[in-house]
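Ticket 4471: requesting a sanity check on a complex prediction with aspartic acid. Repro inputs:
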Amino acid sequence: MPETPDTPDRQRNTLVVHGGAGAITRKTMTPAVEAQYRIGLERALQAGYRILAAGGHSVDAVMAATMAFEDDFLFNAGKGSVFTHDGMIEMDAAIMDGRSGDAGAVAGVTTVKNPIVAARAVMDRSRHVLLIGDGADRFAALHNSEIVDQAYFFTRHRWDQLQKAREKERVRPDHDDRPASTSAPPSHDRQSDNKFGTVGAVALDCLGNLAAATSTGGLTNKLYGRVGDSAIIGAGTYADNATAAISGTGVGEYFMRALLAYDIAARMKYTKASLSDAVDQAIYCALESKGGEGGVIALDAGGNIKCSFNTKGMYRGYITNDGKPVVQLYKD
Ligand code: ASP
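Returned structure tokens:
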């Protein structure tokens, strides 16, 4: 287990969050919508930072930030989750403790109000890492997750998105609908609005411990039973005190094939790359070169922050020991 500095130092407190990447440009954004996203990002930052400022743990901070996003209909997680091809909500989430290496995840949950709480329960209260479907819902209910029915997750904008996607994208479970080349994303890999609204958080606490969390409704119009990278430790979520905490957003299939979050940590571990170089190498060499789109937020134990994406923008923000949230949406 990596060494943990035992003297608490509040100067270390750092939290970074994202609310998804995609075609986010000044041109396509209205001031009213931009203001809503800024409020949502700041709310998540404050929720997590409150815990860090009180001397709390990074795992609690990333969970609190992620829950704030899950309760906000704007983001593709919890309340604002996107619909499957069949008009269902099936959510994925994961959390990882960089100090112990413990991790927990759920995939395809349909009744859990806050999937990140269920992922945390898997980490803390089971001997497993990943639970799926009905079993994950049942386990969450047993361990104090708030249970809701599918109607709770209904939002008009996600429903309309599904109708548009169904018109445009061919999803035929009974046919092979892969593209001819794996370097060209199949049409259903893309969100109908070219935005990936998955949420995530990475944090460093006063003891120098890192943690990461990610939560998502997945991709609009996805096939039943599809699981994305967010729930896969090493793909969309990873944390290790010796390297970095990482949370991703984008076309999950590419993140899973590249094991992107772990790829960043591995570059740091084995090639001694800096956080910044490791993230850029992963985004451009492991993701983009294979046709993947998306971005990551990453944080190392020295408090270095790196957000990188190959989309037009990414909803993101950070807060450090001065307690002032900084929120960014666009590339420049
Ligand atoms: N990565 C998520 C998934 O593929 C989607 C997203 O980032 O919005 O499930």
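Notes from triage: Residues 20, 76, 196-198, 216, 218-219, 228-230, 236, 249-252 surround aspartic acid (CB under 6 Å). Leaving this open until the requester confirms.
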